[in-house]
Amino acid sequence: MQPGPIDTDMNPGDSEFGQQMLGFIPLGRYGEVEEISGAVAFLAGPDASYITGTTLNIDGGAAA
């Protein structure tokens, strides 16, 4: 899994750096912790049992 900028205490989206990063994120916002945890739960669950060797970008379109 490859997460993009996520709004956390150590990486706040409303910081000066966070505001500069918004120009690189097509969705125009930082991700939320819940958006990453949902992907982790999916990959750890039975519905993802046949997924191997892939990178899941969760970055608001930054890598697109």
What does this structure look like?
It is a single chain. The chain has 64 residues and is mainly α. The protein has one domain. 28% of the residues lie in helices and 6% in strands. The chain is built from 2 helices and 2 strands; from the N terminus they run E-H-H-E. The chain has helices at 16-21, 33-44, and strands at residues 2-3, 57-58. The protein has a two-stranded parallel sheet. The model has no long low-confidence stretch (mean pLDDT 93).
Determine the structural class based on helices, strands and strand pairing: mainly alpha
Give start-end ranges of low-pLDDT stretches: none
H/E topology pattern: EHHE
Spatial ordering of strands, largest sheet: 1-2
Mean pLDDT: 93
Q: How large, in whole angstroms, is the Cα Rg?
A: 13 Å
Number of strands: 2
The termini sit apart by 15 Å
How much helicity do the residues have?
25-40%
Number of domains: 1
How many H/I helical runs?
2
Broad shape: elongated
Q: What fraction strand?
A: 5-15%
Largest sheet: 2 strands, parallel
